[in-house]
User: Fold this.
Amino acid sequence: MEGRQKNKKILVLVERDNGGLAPVTFELLKAGKDLADKLGADLCAAVLGHEISAMSNEIAHFSDEVYCIDNPLLRDFRVEIYAQVLWKICSDINFDVVVISHKLDNLDLVPRLAYKMGVPIITDCINLTIEPETEYLLCTKPVYGAKILSTFILEKKPYIITIRSKAMEPIGSNDANGKIIYLNPTIDESSIKIALIEKIKGETIALDKADTIVAGGRGIQGVEGLRQLEEMVRVLKRYFKEVELGASRPLVDIGLVPSQRQVGLTGEKVAPELYIAVGISGALQHLTGMLGAKNIVAINNNPKAPIFEVAHYGVVGDYQEVVPAVIKKLEEML
Amino acid sequence: MKQLQIVVCIKQVPDPEGPASSFEVDSEAKKVVPVGIPPVINPFDENALEVALRLKEQHGAKVVAISLGERLSKPVLRKTFAAGADDLILLEDPSFKDLDSYSTAYMLSKMITKVESYDLILTGRQAGDWDFGVTGLLIAEMLQIPSINLARKVSIVDRNVFVEKLKPYGYDVVSAPMPALVTVSSEVGELRYTSVRSLKSVSGRPVKVYNGDDLDIDPEKLETRGVFSLFPYHIQRECKFIEGGSSAEKGENLVTQLRKNEVI
Assistant:
């Protein structure tokens, strides 16, 4: 063993998406770069998957070192295998901070990795700062269903943090010429206890990529109400590229809308150009998923609904009358 | 065959459905002070209990609820009895204040091994207070048993637990040999209704209470959450309310306004 490395190192776990880099990767790289600049550290990235050379080359434009593990067993995300190989990278190289996207699969990965490394974790961070003198990391995350922001202090490196998507800007500069390092750890398949029996694919929905979201909540009455929202989605597609139907938790819980469309604390966190909330009262656990939208329109019959406190435009009225009128006017105009 | 033993970890939290104004921040003490809202069982842990009770109906299991904290409310936690749990174990100690996820998982894992044999451990996917979502899986790592995160459905066949596990594209059906741990998401459905009468009928049921000294723990391993600061998270925007003589007219005016402001 070489012992401690000379330079401090920040590791970013690269996210893939349909065979390419997921947009959130560039946000993670930005978060990692900011930390690296402040700590005088190298920015490193880990690319796990199969046939990943193009991705790795692209990542090298943004980082100092790219650690790649290319193995058919990594084609799909299997948490026990991913935890194993990531632990392998982290035990070979002493990273100071490991930066991971706070997405569904990683919620499974991070506690396992943290336990193997014996290090603390702060999940779902939306802001990171370094105390200049001590070099302690201060990371902020919403707590108590997003009613409160808490900043945690991490004194002893290393540690793992997960970052909420859309909380950071994507990285801009791509003039790095990082070293690409292929690692080939043995994957111990005998330690795998969880058997995958079947994948059940629902609709593929990319809420995070939508530039407009029409979302329904508790106020939407049944299939008929939902149909009106879908109609609005259809008309808005004339103007916007990616328009999706979203929902707050009540519609998902009663099974009217699949969970992939849920916006909020336990669903997607989105930041589209336009977010139209229909019949959504604005429980904080929903608001935390959409506060970042550039323009928020709220349609609700209760003028005191909390959604109006965060909306840019508000319509107080019965959605069953408002929505058809909006659709009609849009059709005339767009 | 030996009876199936299911342990459900439950956490007491201030009611997450309470309005934002009922969560006051004591910046000095770096504490959240719930005002005028009752403590409840963390809703995701209630989902986990519901899963346990359904499995009990199918397989005749013994369901043990355990909770850890510094000031636990027995009336609140006795709801687990009213719903159908067989045993309630509290791990209560003044030193359990503001423990981090690691320490919480460490204490719970010690508790589970000490007092019960177990086939299946169920926890909520995350707690409605600090929202870390890591304690359940850490318990499994400490006990060195397989764990499955984010269940929308759980069943048992022979000595295996089968789980429909949430994925970005839908769900995976996965299985693991027991003993195992599963974290449960709200998709499984809410905890069954408990009537006032059933709550009253369990008000005298004995609860086992342990403290830190009862467990073989290493106090060196206990750490508190490193909270640096706390702030209320409140965004107040100036909402432009769209006027109109009727709901329909407001709808039309909304589109006109959005066009004027070049939103669409």
Summary: Chain A touches chain B through 90 residues (CB under 8 Å). Residues 50 and 70 of chain A are 5 Å apart (CA to CA). DSSP finds nine helices and 18 strands in chain A.
